[in-house]
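ok so I'm stuck.
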Amino acid sequence: MRIAAQGYGGCTFDARGHGQSRWNPADAPYTLDQLVDDVAELARQYPASPVLVGASMGGLLGMYAQGHRDPPPFSALVLVDITPRWEAAGVERILAFMTAHPDGFDDLEHAATEIAAYLPHRPQRKSPADLEKLLVRHADGRWRWHWDPRLIDSIGRRGEDHQEL
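replied:
not stuck anymore, here's the structure
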């Protein structure tokens, strides 16, 4: 609200295959260039280069777009929960957790328990209400992450390929 009160606008979006965006068809793999093209195209829709505030995958896409598109699509980047360089062991730990429940969770309490076990250092446990933003209830009644699991195999496990020296 403070930013809007100063006359700045903003928007939020979900990357392809993430959140409420469309997923690629089963026969169409995800590529990093495809996701970066999407975010760069979104930036081109503004009269001036926007500032990208990117969390996790959004931050990665922003960094990659900024370094690999000419002209760079953003006037600045704000990175949330992501870093330009990462440790392979840390990434593997994250990916292992993200893929540990391919059949989803029985309910939101089950998800909260699993997340708390994965992040024991966090002082406050996620509530079931918090998790409704991160999980989607499927027709079988189980709760699954709000992103296409194929993103992990096609993009996530290839992260080292995109860390230039």
